[in-house]
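In the current project phase, our protein records have gained a C-alpha cell line. A sample record follows, to show the layout:
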Amino acid sequence: MATITRSTVYKGSDIMLDYSCMPCEEKGFSKEAEVYCEKCTTFYCGSCLNLHNQLYKTHTRYERSDMKHWPLARATRDCVEKCKLHMDEKLKLFCEDHEKLCCNTCISLNHRQCAKVSLITDLVNITSPGDLQQLFDDIKTIKQQLKELRKSREENIASLQESLKKSKQYIPDVRDKINAALDELEKMTLTELDFSIANFKTDFKKDVDNCNKLYEELKCFRDTIHKIGENNNDLVFVANQKWLEKKKQSESYIQ
C-alpha cells in the first residue's frame, strides 16, 4: 500500500495519492480518501463523507483502519498490470515460448509467430493459492541476499579506503628507502669510478714512461752505431744483434 498522506492536491500535481476521494476528483481536484463505501463502490474524504452519511445512513462503510475490505488501489494495480514497454497498455497475455508477460502491442510486434500465447485470465485457475506465499518467500530471500551483498560491498569499500590510506602512508617511506639506496649506490659508483680511473692513469703513465725509456735507449743506440763506422765489422755485427733484440723487445711492448 502506498504511503498515507493527508495533503490536498490539484490535478496536474506530481504528488500521487494511494486512494483519492472520487467526488472531489469530479470537481477537478484531488483529496485523499478516508472511507470506502461498499454499496456505492466509492471512496470519500471526510468532507464528502458527511454529505454521504446524510443521504445513505445504512450503507456499509470501511475506514482506513479496516482497509482489507477496500478494493485494490489503482496505483497498485497499474504498477502490476501496466506494460513496461507500452505504458498505455495492460498486460493481458502470456507467451509460454518466451515466458514473457505481454500486452497486445507486444504480441503484435514480437510474438506473432509464437505457438503458445494464452490469456492471463485463462491461466489464473492454474495458479495455486500457495503461489503467492511462495512469491513472498522468494522476494524475502532475494531481499536478504541483496542486503547481504550490499553489506559485503560496503565492507569492501571501507577496506579499500583503509588500504588506500595505508598505501599513502607507506609510499613516502618506500620513497625514502629508495632515495637512500640510490644515494648509497651513487656513492659506491663514484668511489669505484675514481679507483678505476686511478688504476688506468697509473697503467697509462707506466706505458708513457716505458715508451720514453725505450725511445731514449733506441736514440742512444742509434747515435752509438752511427759512430762505429763501416770498418769495424765486429762491432757492427754485435750492434746488429743487439738491435734485433731491442727491436723484438720494442715490438712486443707496442703490441
